[in-house]
Specification:
Layout: H1 18-24, E1 34-41, E2 47-49, E3 57-60, H2 61-67, H3 69-74, E4 78-83, H4 103-114, E5 119-124, E6 138-139, E7 142-143, H5 145-162, E8 166-169, H6 176-186, E9 193-200, H7 207-212, H8 234-246, E10 250-254, H9 260-270, E11 274-278, H10 280-291, H11 297-311, E12 315-318, H12 321-330
Parallel strand pairs: 1-3, 1-4, 1-12, 4-5, 5-8, 8-9, 9-10, 10-11, 11-12
Antiparallel strand pairs: 2-3, 6-7
Helix pairs in contact: 2-4, 4-5, 5-6, 8-9
């Protein structure tokens, strides 16, 4: 039913001035809504550009505290860690994932020492460690659910003991949230949170990320037997419901902009802390258009991020986090 009619009601009146636009804004984006995914690499004093993600780098652990210092100062509450694993450190079982001195664990310790109030989120999946590029272990050419979950549990405990605050399983194995929660609790890690990649789709928007972590060209086959079909929406609600019941503290939808309908359904259905990942392909598309002069960087960036808030996100994992926080601080 219309609320008012022209000319008694002029919708443009509340748009006339900056202060009225601020007062009537339905959604507000702040640095506290942003999570910055960062890439780690081996070695010392290294900053390596990611060719497929303009403006993003891989950073060695000795520089990671310095690397995030501006993010901390800008009020970004958390970073998400992803390792670049060279081919020679990968194997079929992803055994590097269980090394307490791997990149994520080492970076977590460094970050907690330098920035104790910064949240550290650790990616729990095997694709950054396997020589076949899958998120789990292969048995007769199929990603085995239970064998993978057992490894993920050990991986989660190892990360949490190194200082990771939030375990973020991105693998999409059935039952892994409950198993990881039990493993963490049994290890006395009752305060470690779980941010589940609850509705992660088999998407074409992940390629730049795979380049960033060294998995590009590694993948044998595809991930359609465990990641979700982009055609499905009701199924996402079942996935989220199961993860909440198994102990997820927060849930995530991935990718972001192409799946804002899923974000909205999840938030309105469950009312739990809901996040989305503006993935590498989304970032790189905007940056490619910016580099060609087709889009204004700041306007496109902020409009895309506001779409996540409008859909119902509590927070957004975005490679734009630091740049967006700068714009927000400038007002």
């Amino acid at each position: 039913m219309p609320l008012g009619s022209f000319p008694a009601t002029r919708m443009r009146r509340n748009r006339r001035d900056a202060w009225t636009r601020a007062l009537t804004a339905e959604n507000v984006l702040s640095p506290s809504n942003l999570i910055w995914p960062i890439f780690l690499c081996e070695g010392e004093n290294r900053r390596v550009p990611v060719d497929t993600m303009p403006g993003q780098i891989r950073v060695s652990v000795d520089l990671v505290a310095e690397h995030v210092a501006e993010a901390v100062a800008l009020g970004i509450p958390a970073v998400a860690l992803f390792p670049y694993t060279p081919a020679e450190q990968r194997d079929a079982e992803g055994t590097r994932a269980l090394d307490e001195n791997n990149l994520i664990c080492s970076a977590a310790r460094a970050l907690k020492a330098a920035h104790p109030n910064l949240g550290v989120i650790g990616d729990v999946a095997l694709d950054t460690y396997t020589d076949h590029g899958h998120d789990g272990v292969l048995r007769d050419g199929y990603v085995h659910n239970e064998d993978t979950v057992a490894i993920l549990c050990e991986m989660a405990v190892t990360m949490a003991q190194a200082g990771v605050d939030v375990i973020a399983p991105s693998d999409m194995m059935d039952g892994r949230i409950g198993a990881i929660r039990t493993a963490l609790d049994n290890a006395g890690l009752i305060h470690t949170k779980i941010m589940s990649y609850a509705a992660k789709y088999a998407s074409g928007f992940y390629s730049p990320f795979r380049d960033a972590v060294g998995s590009l060209g590694q993948l044998i086959g595809d991930k359609k037997t465990y990641q979700m079909d982009p055609a499905n929406s009701d199924e996402a609600l079942r996935e989220v419901a199961m993860d909440i019941n198994e102990g997820a503290d927060m849930v995530m939808v991935k990718p972001g902009l192409p799946y804002l309908d899923i974000v909205h359904r999840v938030r309105t259905t469950f009312g739990v802390p809901t996040y989305a990942y503006q993935v590498s392909g989304e970032y790189s598309m905007i940056m490619a258009a910016v580099e060609r002069g087709w889009l204004d960087h700041d306007r496109a960036m902020m409009e895309a991020l506001m779409a996540f808030k409008r859909a119902g996100c509590n927070g957004i994992l975005t490679y734009f986090a630091v740049k967006a926080a700068r714009v927000l601080k400038q007002g």
